[in-house]
Amino acid sequence: MHVLGIDAGGTKTICLLADENGGIVSTGRGPGANLHTAGELAVEKVLHEAMEAAIGDRAITPSAICLGIAGVDREDEARTVRAIMRRIGYKSRVLVVNDALIGLVAGARDEAGIAINAGTGSIVYGRNASFEAARAGGWGHMIGDEGSGYWIGRESLAAVMRAFDGRGPETRLTAEILSHFNVEDESRLPRIVYDRAQPRAGVAALGPLVQRVIDQGDAVATRILERAADELVLAARSVATRLEMRGDAFTFHLAGGVFRVVPWLAQELPRRLMEVAVATLATDRALLLLGVPGTAKTWVSEHLAAAISGDSTLIVQGTAGTPEEAIRYGWNYARLLADGPSHAALVPGPVLSAMRRGAIARVEELTRIPADVQDTFITILSEKTLPIPELGDEVQAVKGFNVIATANDRDRGVNELSSALRRRFNTVVLPVPASIEEEVDIVSRRVTALGKALELPETPSSIAEIRRVVTVFRELRDGVTEDGRVKLKTPSGTLSTAEAISVMTSGIALAGHFGDGVVRAADVASGIRGAVVKDPVSDAVIWREYLETVIRERDDWKDFYRAARSAE
């Protein structure tokens, strides 16, 4: 059995052919296929070609097809798309939804969540725990799409024209946009922009220029992106309000090409959504920080606890062997045997101590704790009370008490939170670094700090090797090379920023103690291989293919190729 999944947005269309296990067999690609802006015949052509490219010469008839397509919001529009599919040759088991829904399902699965989708257009789509759905935006470039690629491009063009008229401040956007459209002065821009041959995607493509200008400190470009962030957050809040999600456990998910080509926005939006995390701690809900390893969950938890209650040391470290006593309380057995249960014999745990003091308690790796032990938190978080039946007493939390927990995305399947416990948390997903530059900077600063703390020998700048480690991790993590030309198999490990830091710290120690003090490829190659090859069979094959098809072909990576082969 095979199925087709199609994501047809305003700029591009991707068609995936998958087998019965969800494994991707092949991919087909095409241009945008927005029903409103492209038209029915153009959409039919794009879908037909993308599906043909995905199926190829295989003798396969998909058992089902799901299309997430931009511009489809009503049943009559879905009927139009189903008619297109019948003309192509597929008559049954065709599900047609708005492309915003598939973005949400990809991130949230069956859980409650809100997807902020910003590509050529923009839309925010949410679903609560009762499977009620709501949307904001997505009304097209004429009356909506705030915060989208087109909106950012249009606002940038408007800022250039205002500066040209003397109605607005000068901006570096002028030179960039004139160069982009290959014209000499601003008066020629309207003719180009309003030309029917100029697609919306041409205006939406100005995003990278705005990013370039904001990196130079341009105030006008900064204000445009700040307004874009304002609009997207406002839409997300609107959806959350309409679905009555305040206090519920749900996650935000960023989707769409804008967050890739405008890294500023990808960094700013999570920061603003982090305000939700801070606000959570002022309510009766606890806070769950969710993310893959290396997304600074512990750092955020520690600093929030320290900033709010002046103490970040009231912490429970979650493991598979964490007992209930680590969360509730224990006993001084010498006193217990001598005097029986008493307040003097009771040994409070971090959570009980936080309740008595009105402070923040931290729980690291909540999903590693056995499910029956996790549920100890239900009474604590819902009633703000901890019973002590041995003493016929209970501890009522002092005002200010709350809990910040962290959980690893990859561990959710081990000890999933019960529905009753999940409702006691607001969940904030911490994203991986949006760009390679951001990740290189994080690794560099952290490696420097660790080197000083561990008193490692000082070495010359190792930024070149840091970039190399980060590049390898990002490419294998994303399943595609940095230039987008070669698709890669993804290994079983997380290849997180934290692991990159560990590899580089080890490399510096090797170079300092056993080398000449300069970090080279040989100092990090074995560490990278160790991070990649978790499964000695499947991961070893993936690593070898990556070395031979990608690394070997890079002229300036010959030293790394030799070192990596030697480390095998």
Could you please describe the fold and organization of this structure?
It is a single chain. The chain folds into four domains: 2-97, Nucleotidyltransferase, domain 5 (2-Layer Sandwich), CATH 3.30.420; 101-280, ATPase, nucleotide binding domain (Nucleotidyltransferase, domain 5); 286-429, P-loop containing nucleotide triphosphate hydrolases (Rossmann fold, 3-Layer(aba) Sandwich), CATH 3.40.50; 436-566. α2 crosses α3 (75-88). The chain has 568 residues and is of the alpha/beta class. The model has no long low-confidence stretch (mean pLDDT 82). It contains 24 helices and 18 strands.
Task: Walk me through the topology.
Blueprint: E1 2-8, E2 12-19, E3 24-31, H1 35-38, H2 40-55, E4 64-69, H3 75-88, E5 94-97, H4 99-108, E6 113-118, E7 122-127, E8 133-137, H5 149-165, H6 173-181, H7 189-193, H8 200-204, H9 207-214, H10 219-242, E9 251-255, H11 258-261, H12 263-280, E10 286-291, H13 297-309, E11 315-317, E12 329-331, H14 333-339, E13 346-348, H15 350-357, E14 360-364, H16 371-374, H17 376-383, E15 385-388, E16 393-396, E17 402-408, H18 419-422, E18 425-429, H19 436-453, H20 463-478, H21 497-514, H22 521-532, H23 538-549, H24 558-566
Parallel strand pairs: 1-4, 4-5, 6-9, 10-17, 10-18, 11-14, 14-17
Antiparallel strand pairs: 1-2, 2-3, 6-7, 7-8, 12-13, 15-16
Helix pairs in contact: 2-3, 5-10, 9-10, 10-12, 19-20, 19-21, 20-21, 20-22, 21-22, 22-24
